[in-house]
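User: We ran a pulldown and think these components assemble together. Before we commit to crystallization trials, I'd like a predicted model of the whole complex to look at. Sequences follow.
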Amino acid sequence: GQQVMQIPQYQHVQEGEDFTTYCNSSTTLSNIQWYKQRPGGHPVFLIQLVKSGEVKKQKRLTFQFGEAKKNSSLHITATQTTDVGTYFCAGRISYIPTFGRGTSLIVHP
Amino acid sequence: KAGVTQTPRYLIKTRGQQVTLSCSPISGHRSVSWYQQTPGQGLQFLFEYFSETQRNKGNFPGRFSGRQFSNSRSEMNVSTLELGDSALYLCASSLTSSASGNLQETQYFGPGTRLLVL
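Assistant: Here's a predicted model for the assembly, 227 residues in total across the polymer chains.
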């Protein structure tokens, strides 16, 4: 069925290294959202991308939306221990809110 | 503004029982969505309500139902509980407004209700 794929499932990094998670949809999305869920917590909204090729930055986080609006990425520069958590992308497929399985980021001090 | 609240936070039930979970959205938000989160399946959409009307429904059996009241508060019910229904149930509210022609779909999640079915 139609879905949103996210890779990698897990990523271990040393503090200070960069991190990237990729999101691919089986169909064109009108927009895409990114969320972060800390261990034991609930998803927290980070950003929404709408335009083809859009790039948005939030301090050390850079979000991109692909030209075809079927893929997106989140890049974190110089990770910190506070970045630990699972990062989800989400979009509507056939009107249904669909989340990727998430990428769990583990930062080693 | 107060955030999304969900009650109860934890629940233990046995197979065959039914359960009702409650969600109070952020004041002014008229859209409420429910999700089931499990380690095996991730975040899966259950249903979405807007102004007391179900807008969309995910691929879950009819044992899962929900409703929204005139004050935007929402409840979901699971009947004839199965072991596989053990999960974190998340409610999310959104304004779902349109700004500059782009639909704003920011969802604000509550802390969830952790359901354990024995």
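Chain A has no helices and eleven strands. That may be worth checking against your pulldown data before setting up trials.

User: Thanks, that helps.
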